[in-house]
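Subject: sequence -> structure tokens, single chain

Hey, anyone have a minute? Need the predicted structure for the following. Not urgent.
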Amino acid sequence: MKKSIPLLLAIALASLAAAAEAPAPAAAPSAAVPTSAAPTAAAPASPAPAAAAKAKPAGGADGKHGVTIEIKAGSDDEDANEVGAAAPDTEGDSKEEHVDSLVSIGHDSTLEAGKRAEAVVSVFGSSTSDGDVDGSVVSVFGNTRVTGKVGESAVAVLGNTYVDGHVTESVVATMGNVELGPHAVVDGDVVAVGGDLVRDPGAIVHGGVQNVMIFGHMGNMEWLHNWVHRCLMLGRPLAIAPGLGWAWAIAFSFLALYLVLALLFPTGVTRCVQTMEAQPGRTALAALFTFIGKPILFVLLLITVIGSFLVPFLAFALMIAGLFGKAVAFAWLGRRALPKRDSGSEFPPVLAVLVGGLIAFVLYIIPILGFIAYKGLDVLGLGMVVYTLILAHRARREAAQAAQLATESAATTTGAPLGTAEAGATAAGGATAAPTAEPAGTPPPAPAPQVSLALENRAGFWIRTLALLLDVFLVAIVTSIVHFHTHDALLLIVATYGAVMWRLRGTTIGGIVCGLRVVRMDGRPIDWPTAVTRALGAFLSLFVAGLGFIWVVFDAERQSWHDKIAGTVIVHAPRGTPLV
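Reply:
Had a minute. Here:
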């Protein structure tokens, strides 16, 4: 098999990517493809046909949402952008029409008898050739049918191949059947992978015949072709059409699974839904960053030796969380559709999941919106689960801290009478009473910090972001004034500026404007190791899609990643505190 087959597949996939950028898949565009045709010798009495790239509307039911690119050879003197049928042949019917290549995306390609083409390729469609093809006839997610002559190979990927003509090289069907008619002549091999091979007694095969079974007999792939044409090409996972009963069976099977999860874990489903209803903004933000952070986390684990062993477990955990999240998303959607009730008499979660699932199925059959709703509910459901787990972990930690503080307070309270009794006993001793009372007041109290480390005094995400933007803007202005034109080093300059200011003043100019100060969690002043560590940690927070900076929104201590690395926190400076 020559190199033209991979080239044709590459052309087809590139054309598919270009077609995917069209505004609506359901439209039937007719666009000319400008090309420079190869020069052709012209007779003096008759000019050569003009070069034209013709976008033909598809025939049949599938022609509503496809693109056909047909390139015809002709003279260079004509306008290459002309669209229309080829010029009539003035020399007679003996000269056949030549098409350099015929590529279709989203529907079928057909080369009629008496025509000649370089190649016939269909992506998400079937290829039929009754004429002569110099190269190959290829179908991806479609069937290949050849009754004429093919100069190279006839190939179908996820489809069937039927040959009742002359094929110079091989005949191949991947996950489909191969059928050779009585007039079939194949000079190369015949290969059927995952399907049947039916050969007429009159068919001639000069090469070998192979029937490879990988996952057993795949049989006819028409069920998949129907889904591709009626669902995938229209941007929806489901459709009401013949041959798609298997897709609806899968959808209702998963809905049954979500109902079982709602029956087994009603409290968990309800808590996740309540999280979304109470904090929709933060939940949506958690869903977005969970979606962005998943591939980044997998990459970070794969590039390490130890972390690569955790990838299968993480993938399994995310799969389980995704299934539960889809049930939660259905429950949230169903609760919004059901009538409101008092907190004590709400509808059970299983009913909300059922109603939400039926609403989602209706959305799934709408073109374009179907896939948006399908993926959006996946992302939102997983985000609700993740953010609920974060809130639960935060609540447990706050409860543990409160219990610890209560224990310390109780210990202090029970120790006071004991100290008083000892003081009384010492006073009864006479001369030793006075010296004992004096040391009790001699140790000076510990100096109070200039700023409070209490949680309510710590800076939030938006005020920190404003201060950072002011600093970046200031550094950019200064570098422009001093003609220091190096955009690549701007981040390094900002980090150096921040480290120096944190060490010398405990804040930056942006922090002064916003009334913020960087302090250590242990109350000690900022030293050079702490400042440099915090500046370097900021690069990690930035490079992981900025997640380290946004972590302040979710963290119970209101610390970013570089704050946690350096052991610092940003607080609001009290009024009257000198910052410079």
